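Because discrete structure vocabularies remain unfamiliar, it helps to consider an illustrative case, giving the amino acid sequence and backbone structure tokens:
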Amino acid sequence: MTQAHHLDARRDQILQAAIKVFAERGFAKTLMADIVRATGLSTGAVYRYFPSKEDLVLAAVVGRDGERETGGFPPESAAELLRRLIGYVTPPDGTAHARFVSMIWGDAAVTPSLAAVARERHEALQQHLTSLLEAQRAPEAQDRPEPEDAVAQVALAALVGYAALVATDTPVDTDGFLRVLERMVSERHEPTAGPVPGPAPASAPPPPSQ
């Protein structure tokens, strides 16, 4: 492992420990000492990467959208993106992340610095989903009334709501939720279902005159 990879791995280790602690205790009740304890590292090692709790929160808000890890969004369809994102916040493994996502949006409403970062990441993800929808759009869908960016915004807002349901242990049909989202984006690039119009039937001949 190179030095750069080692540093990235250590940074990610601290972030994942912080997200877990934030999910359990909330931002306000979490101390840097709690995070240091969760990482198993020394105080100096943690502060080397993140000088304050706010720095940790803002770094963690970048989230797991696939961009930071690879230097760009991975190649995927709109439906694949939604499946990947919902997987991050689906129980049991995604419960902590769902709580973290819910706390981000709640605290962002009253914390301008957090709101700015959350908004930037959300807008980048929305632009990515919009571009995927535009690339997949078929000629038959050109006259659909909803623009791609509106569909992307609704789909991502639904995922934020899904995370809130998971975070509060509210029962949710994950498979059904995902089917609806996938149908929403797949209808953007599939022809409208229905019978193929054919030629109009010929008029019946007039009755013979008496």
In short: The radius of gyration is 24 Å. Residues 190-210 have pLDDT under 50 and may be disordered.
